[in-house]
Amino acid sequence: MAEVKHLDESNFEETVSNGVTLVDFWAEWCGPCKMLGPVLGEVAEEIGDDAVIAKVDVDKAQALASQYSIRSIPAIFILKDGEVKQQFVGLQDKQTLVNAVKSAL
Fold it and tell me: Which of 1, 16, 31, 63 is deepest in the core (most CB within 10 A)?
């Protein structure tokens, strides 16, 4: 079963550099971010090993948040081979995210 990975500066580039990765920039204190957590788990289950589903805590990885110009959270990026293909701000439903990942595959 696929799981949601937690990324920070130490493993971000290596993870997103190959294949498709959905990255959720979030924070512990963010209500919509907490609501998105279970949705990401469902997306990871449906996508399986076709893509990586990951989260970055903006309070713990401020350099990454700055690099991606995160202004509002949750901010969701779909990356392919390290390049941003699509992005969303705010709470998204499972099917929207699944479709976005599949379109990047």
Answer: 16
